[in-house]
Every structure is written in structure tokens, then in C-alpha cells.
Write a structure and sequence with these properties.
heterodimer; A: about 270 residues; alpha/beta; eight-stranded mixed beta sheet; B: about 280 residues; six-stranded mixed beta sheet; five-stranded mixed beta sheet; 7 helices; 18 strands; elongated; disordered N terminus
């Protein structure tokens, strides 16, 4: 049985797809057979971030409608073994996802995969609800600013009331908080909420803090998950997150402002 | 004498409701208003259709003096109930006989009753009722007074007593609603007729409502409305007050006022008269 993890946030533009790509790739790097599903029907982005946009033939909606089978549709990543992508349809809308259809696809994937990462669209409508409905765990991506925190709070409420686990009265969806675009300098200056502030408001266990990084934008544009950039702070932070997701203790990095030495101050970083 | 008869007939007690539908009147009013005074706004008055429960008196014959006598003894049994009571007189049983409406009005006025209208009138009766300044109403369907053919004495006055629903407060104990979770943005909880206890935080954008008190063992960042059904003595207790809004029986404070009074502190919020007051929970 695969672990189904939804990457969600409520708010748009906080880094759901970037995180889905990084975490999925990270799990595959750890040797788990992983599939990342793009639930953002109509605004497909995951294939771009993963750099597989030219290899998309069939999509998620095709599989649901029975136009293609999973073998034809899944795109195998060429960089990491055991990593697959199920792209979204760009020409349909979110109502194309039916609960029965999604369940059927997830059940089939569960037989062969260890992890299923559901990359949720923004919002709290049909698409987002479908992405989180079958989840066992949820990674709530939040930026350290009030509107993102508020929307994350909303989505946490929905997870607790509208997921399958909630409806069937099972053990609730396991919630994790992933703080992205974290800038310790701006936190110190009071421009941004601190890790402690966000954790206090959301009352969810923290799983990772990803620093605001040039590497993320660069990775997106070249279509390579940032976790593959081992030199970058963001890549390392995602790798730490994977360790915590797998149950290993890992100290937090990049949450204090780097103290610049005299040479760095003089000659630049 | 007559009344006794009326009482012995159990079937005489029932409610008759006369609905006066006024929606068409309202439409006409608006139209007329537009034509005559196009610039005047009609915010001064508002016409609305509404239903009232009225007592209907069925006259069995045209002998008003006898009817008055019977009514008088009836009223003496419950004078409070009848003082200036609005009443509708049903004259269906008179079969179109001409009625002296002026006299009828006076008769009832002397008994401290207000005749608001006539029901069951023929067209001719309606005309004379209007000249006497009485409204004509259509008798409610199925409300024709039953005649008992076995009655040994001819009843002259039939009186239908109106049942006035009186809400009797039955003091019952209802256990408090206990919620053991964080209430997230967008979630709403209502504790009907009881207290609400939240073991957890109430987030921004969440709403907790109770007809009784509200206790929050966590941060209150959302909205809390206590005494929702009109209870001045309801209170809100919270471990840490950072609320968007708190309200007790319609009196409310927004975060602006809370920030000045008790921000991020624990406290008990209650009404002193109609003024919201916060007291510390520190002992």
C-alpha cells in the first residue's frame, strides 16, 4: 500500500508544485518508487518544473475517462530511478475529476508505488478537494506571511472535515507544515512571521523550512527539481525535509541569519 | 345563559387565523408613489403583509342586544383578556339580512371591544359595512361555525376563544457542548441552548457561537458570540484574547477595542448593563 501525501496550501503561488517536485524526487532518490500526480487540471505546471513537458502524451483525465491506461500515461523521469509523473490535462477543467475516477487511479497506483504525491491546485474547490480527499498525510505549504497562514488554516480545517479519513471516522490525516520562502533576515527585521509565530498560529508539526533562494527560480526555469541541486540551500533544506518525512531527526538549518564575516562583508558573498 | 351553552360545547374552542395578504396592496402603493411623487423616497413607511390571530364572533341572528348581553357575561370571566381586544364579526348566519353596523360598532365599543372588520358579508352588507367604517374580510375557509341540530336551546352567540400560545420556560439542564480540537478558519460551531467549551484554539476566520457561555482553553483569534438568543448574563472566557470580534447578546467589540483592553491576555468578558467589560482571570 502506498502512502498518499497531498501537497496543499489554499493560497496560490506559495510553492506547492516546487515542493511536490522536490519531495517526490527526494523520495525516489531514497529508493522509494514514487509518482507525482498533478491535480491542477487546466493549469498544468508540474511537467514544466520536472522538465518533462515535451513528453506528455496522455494525461490524468485521459486515464480517468479510460482513453489511456496508466502505463501509457505515466512519464518516467530520466534522472532518478523509480520516479514517475502523472500530468494534468491542460484542456479540461477541474470538474473532469470525479471521485470514483480518482479513487480508481489511486488504487491502481497503490499496488505498485510506495509514495503517491498529490500536487493540489490552489483554492478550496473541486480540484483541491479531490487532491486531498484520499490523502493519508498532508504537507501544508505556507509562506511566512499572514494571508498564506490564514489560507493554510482554512485548508487544515477542510482536511479535518472533508477528507475520506474524516468522513469515514478513521484516524485523521497526518498534517505537516512546510514553511517555504523563509528569509531569516527579514524575519529579524520584523517583515516576516517567524517559524515560531506560524507554528503557534497553525498548531501543526513542522516538517521543514525552505529558505528563499535563487536556486528555486533557476531550477524551475531549467525544469530540474531543486532537490537535485545539492549545493543549494533550498535543495539541502528539501533533503532534510525528506529525512523528517521518513521519521528521522534532523536539525533545522537556514532559519538563522547567516553572520557575514569581515571578508564576506568586504568582498561580497 | 347563552354562554353556558357555548362553553358546554367543547367544539367551540379553536383558533381561527385571519390572514390579510397585503402584497398586492404594496405593489400598488409603490406604483402610485412613483407616479405622484417620483423623487420622494418611501423610507418613512414600509408596508408589509402579515398574519394575525384574531377572535371571530359568529352572530347567529340580528338581535344585537341579546348578543351584547351574552358577551358581557363572557367578558366578565376574563376581563383582562378582552379589554380593547380586536374582534372580527362573522355575519354569515344572518343570510344577507340588513345589519345596523353603526349600532354594532357602538355595542361592541361599550363592551370595550374594537371591531376591526366584518366577515361573511354579502355584497350589500359589505357596502353598508364600509359606510360604517368597517373593513370587510373573507371568512377563512372551513371556519363556518358548526350548528348543532340536537341543541335544545337556540344559541345566539357563538364565541370562539383564541388560543394564545404562551411560551412556558421549562427549566431543563442541557449539558455544555465540548469541542476538543482547534477550530480552523472557516469553521463554525453553534452550541444551541447551552454553553460551549473549546479545548483548543479558535483561529482567525473561525466562529464560535453559543446561546450560553463560551469557554476557550486556547487562543481566541476568531469570532465569539455568546448569549446568541438574547442572554445578557452570558460570558466569554478565553485563555488568550486576540479575537476579531466578541459579542454578548448583540453588544460587540472588534479587535480594535480588544487591543486596548486585554490583548493577548486571559480574561472574562461580560456585560455590565449594556457595556462590555473585561476582567482578569488571574486570581
Amino acid at each position: 500500500m502506498a502512502r498518499i501525501i497531498v501537497v496543499t496550501s489554499g493560497k496560490g503561488g506559495v510553492g506547492k508544485t516546487t515542493s511536490s517536485a522536490a519531495l517526490g524526487t527526494g523520495l525516489a532518490l531514497k529508493g522509494f518508487k514514487t509518482v507525482i500526480i498533478d491535480f491542477d487540471i487546466g493549469l498544468r505546471n508540474l511537467d514544466l518544473i520536472m522538465g518533462v513537458e515535451r513528453r506528455v502524451v496522455y494525461d490524468f483525465v485521459n486515464v480517468i475517462n479510460g482513453d489511456s491506461n496508466l502505463n501509457q500515461t505515466l512519464i518516467k523521469d530520466k534522472r532518478v530511478d523509480g520516479l514517475y509523473i502523472l500530468p494534468a490535462s491542460q484542456t479540461r477543467d477541474k470538474d473532469a475529476l470525479t471521485r470514483e475516477g480518482v479513487e480508481k487511479v489511486l488504487n491502481e497506483l497503490s499496488e505498485t508505488f510506495d509514495y503517491i504525491i498529490c500536487d493540489s491546485p490552489a483554492g478550496i474547490e473541486q480540484g483541491a478537494l479531490m487532491a486531498l480527499y484520499f490523502a493519508d498525510e498532508a504537507i501544508v505549504v505556507t509562506n511566512p506571511e499572514v494571508s498564506s497562514v490564514r489560507d493554510s488554516d482554512r485548508i487544515l480545517g477542510i482536511l479535518a472535515s472533508k477528507s475520506r479519513r474524516a468522513e469515514e471516522g478513521k484516524e485523521p490525516v497526518k498534517e505537516h507544515l512546510l514553511l517555504t520562502r523563509y528569509n531569516p533576515g527579514r524575519v529579524e527585521r520584523g517583515d516576516m512571521l517567524s517559524v515560531e509565530d506560524v507554528c503557534e498560529i497553525l498548531a501543526v508539526k513542522l516538517i521543514g523550512v525552505i529558505p528563499e533562494s535563487q536556486a528555486v527560480l533557476r531550477a524551475s526555469n531549467v525544469g530540474e527539481p531543486v532537490i537535485l541541486d545539492e549545493q543549494s540551500d533550498a535543495g539541502q533544506a528539501y533533503m532534510d525535509t525528506i529525512e523528517r518525512l521518513l521519521g528521522n531527526e534532523k536539525e533545522y538549518r537556514f532559519i538563522e541569519e547567516e553572520k557575514k564575516g569581515i571578508f564576506k562583508r568586504l568582498f561580497g558573498g | 345563559m347563552f354562554l353556558k351553552l357555548a362553553f358546554t360545547r367543547g367544539a367551540l374552542y379553536h383558533v381561527e387565523q385571519v390572514y390579510i395578504a397585503q402584497s398586492h396592496v404594496r405593489a400598488n402603493f409603490h406604483r402610485a408613489n412613483k407616479i405622484t411623487t417620483p423623487t420622494m423616497s418611501d423610507t418613512n413607511i414600509e408596508l408589509k403583509g402579515s398574519g394575525f390571530t384574531l377572535s371571530v364572533l359568529h352572530l347567529q341572528n340580528n338581535d344585537l342586544a341579546a348578543a351584547a348581553q351574552a358577551l358581557e357575561s363572557k367578558i366578565s370571566q376574563a376581563p383582562q383578556f378582552f379589554t380593547m381586544a380586536p374582534i372580527v364579526v362573522n355575519i354569515e348566519k344572518l343570510n344577507g339580512e340588513a345589519v345596523d353596523f353603526q349600532l354594532l360598532k357602538q355595542t361592541f365599543e361599550q363592551l370595550n371591544l374594537v371591531v376591526v372588520g366584518i366577515a361573511g358579508a354579502t355584497d350589500e352588507q359589505k357596502v353598508s359595512a364600509k359606510t360604517a367604517g368597517l373593513a370587510t374580510l373573507n371568512a377563512a375557509k372551513g371556519q363556518v361555525a358548526p350548528t348543532d341540530t340536537n341543541a335544545p336551546v337556540q344559541t345566539q352567540v357563538r364565541y370562539e376563544r383564541v388560543e394564545v400560545p404562551v411560551e412556558v420556560e421549562v427549566p431543563t439542564y442541557k449539558p455544555a457542548m465540548v469541542v476538543k480540537q482547534n477550530l480552523r478558519s472557516g469553521q463554525q460551531i453553534y452550541a444551541r441552548d447551552t454553553d460551549l467549551v473549546v479545548i483548543g484554539a479558535v483561529s482567525n476566520g473561525a466562529e464560535v457561537i453559543a446561546d450560553g457561555n463560551i469557554h476557550i482553553y486556547g487562543s481566541l483569534r476568531g469570532r465569539a458570540v455568546a448569549g446568541a438568543k438574547g442572554n445578557d448574563s452570558a460570558r466569554i472566557f478565553a485563555q488568550k484574547i486576540e479575537a476579531e470580534l466578541i459579542s454578548i447578546n448583540g453588544n460587540y467589540w472588534t479587535s480594535e477595542q480588544l487591543q486596548k483592553a486585554c490583548w493577548q491576555q486571559s480574561g472574562c468578558i461580560y456585560l455590565d448593563g449594556d457595556k462590555i467589560t473585561v476582567s482578569s482571570l488571574e486570581i
